[in-house]
Design a protein that fits this description.
Blueprint lengths: L7 E3 L2 E3 L10 E2 L6 E2 L17 E2 L3 E5 L5 H7 L5 H5 L10 H11 L6 E7 L4 E12 L4 E9 L7 H17 L3 E7 L3 H9 L3 E12 L2 E11 L3 H12 L14 H14 L7
Parallel strand pairs: 9-10
Antiparallel strand pairs: 1-2, 3-4, 5-6, 6-7, 7-8, 8-9, 10-12, 11-12
Helix pairs in contact: 1-3, 4-6, 6-7
């Protein structure tokens, strides 16, 4: 029988970890130790196909050289230095630089880069990628995310993350990750709003642009997804917005409630 609410036993007693209360386990009859539940034997999940993902407000297109001019346009606003401060690349200085970056970034199958197309304007508003793709352990990350001023903090950016999550959980992945510089307050806030759960702080993890970076880890998991899926659909529905475009219900409220329901094992209905 699978149980939760494990307190890890150590040599000096019992100490609780960040997510011990939701960690599934069984007791091994041979050793009486707590161990993870046995996984059903199955084939490896599929590596995501690099294909168009269609939404109501945005379309995710496999990134190609034809996107360079529009990606440059949304990547070179007046505050570009601020927008790129925490990314691994610098603000591009020309369309040619973007073309070169696209060639390098799409040369390896380890990263599946997408252009985020705003369907209202028909123009590229940003980019994101599926990375750290691990079919064996069924884990995948949304990374290298850049949203320009035309789509940042909008239905387009939210739906872009939703399309990725829906796609990978539909393929059978168990874990969808988000990582960022621990000092990047906006990215940390976005992760929580999107329904990712904070999992930890990796100290002195990376050197980026000549500076030390600690990394914050977030993830959502497969048993949470039915609840989060409904939260996203509720928020993205046109009925959730006033005629002036302002929201009626906040996504952060919906995803918080969804995660509470997931942990209680209740209905995936938001009402």
């Amino acid at each position: 029988r699978t149980t939760t609410a494990l307190m890890v036993r150590g040599s000096r007693g019992v100490s609780g970890g960040l997510h011990d209360a939701t960690m599934p386990y069984v007791i091994d009859p041979a050793t009486q130790l707590a161990i993870g539940p046995e996984m059903e034997a199955r084939e490896l999940v599929q590596v995501p196909e690099h294909k168009v993902l269609e939404g109501r407000y945005c379309r995710l297109e496999p990134l190609e050289a034809r996107h360079a001019a529009e990606l440059y346009a949304c990547s070179s606003p007046a505050d570009a230095e601020v927008r790129f401060r925490y990314l691994f690349d610098a603000p591009p200085r020309s369309v040619e630089e973007v073309e070169s970056w696209i060639r390098r970034s799409t040369a390896t199958p380890a990263y599946l880069y997408y252009a985020v197309v705003d369907k209202a304007s028909g123009r590229v508003g940003g980019r994101q990628s599926l990375m750290r793709i691990d079919p064996t352990h069924r884990s995948i990350e949304n990374g290298n995310v850049y949203m320009g001023p035309g789509v940042a903090r909008s239905r387009v950016a939210t739906e872009a993350n939703y399309l990725f999550a829906s796609y990978v959980f539909g393929l059978g992945y168990r874990r969808f990750e988000w990582k960022c510089d621990a000092l990047n307050a906006k990215s940390r806030s976005a992760a929580l709003r999107f329904g990712f759960t904070y999992e930890g702080h990796f100290r002195r993890a990376i050197i980026n642009k000549g500076r030390s970076r600690d990394t914050s880890w977030f993830a959502m998991i497969d048993e949470e997804w039915p609840y989060l899926d409904e939260a996203y659909q509720t928020w993205l529905h046109p009925d959730n917005f006033h005629p002036d475009g302002s929201q009626k219900r906040r996504l952060s409220d919906l995803t918080k409630l969804a995660l509470e329901r997931a942990r209680l094992g209740g209905s995936a209905s938001s009402e």
